[in-house]
Amino acid sequence: MIFETLFIGLIIAVIYVEIMDIYPGGIIVPAYVALYLDEPLRVLATILIALLSLYAYRVLSRFLILFGKRRFVMLVLLGGLWVQIWFIISPSFFADPLGLRAIGWIIPGLLANNLEKQKILPTLASMFIVAVITYFIVSLVGIIL
């Protein structure tokens, strides 16, 4: 059901962006969050890493010229760096390190990029709305099939 979740999540996110004009943390982010809604610590870790990346970016932007592509790349790199630090500090916190890396390398950077473009509360609220809708639609499709 991973492919179906990602596909349905993409569709729901695009519809949400068209209706609300708010990105839910990126187009693919809510779909990945929906995959891990049954593991709230991974979702929380992803959000914390995104926030750490955002604040590290804000500090670095005082000394470096970071905008456009540079901002995006810096946020993705910072997300990856924080994931590695997080994983080294608390390896027993996550049962499946590969799963954390799958959600952790790209997703926190995408989320941090949208947190930088938009306000934090609307972005996170939108992400959870789209993720929960995706989760329930995928569950419904799983029951029907």
From TrEMBL:
Pfam families: Caps_synth_CapC (PF14102)
Annotated TM spans: 7-35, 41-60, 72-89, 124-144
Matches recorded under InterPro entries: Capsule_biosynth_CapC
Keywords: Membrane, Transmembrane, Transmembrane helix
Record's GO cellular component terms: membrane
GO biological process assignments: capsule polysaccharide biosynthetic process
Name this protein carries in UniProt: Poly-gamma-glutamate biosynthesis protein PgsC
Lineage: unclassified sequences, metagenomes, ecological metagenomes
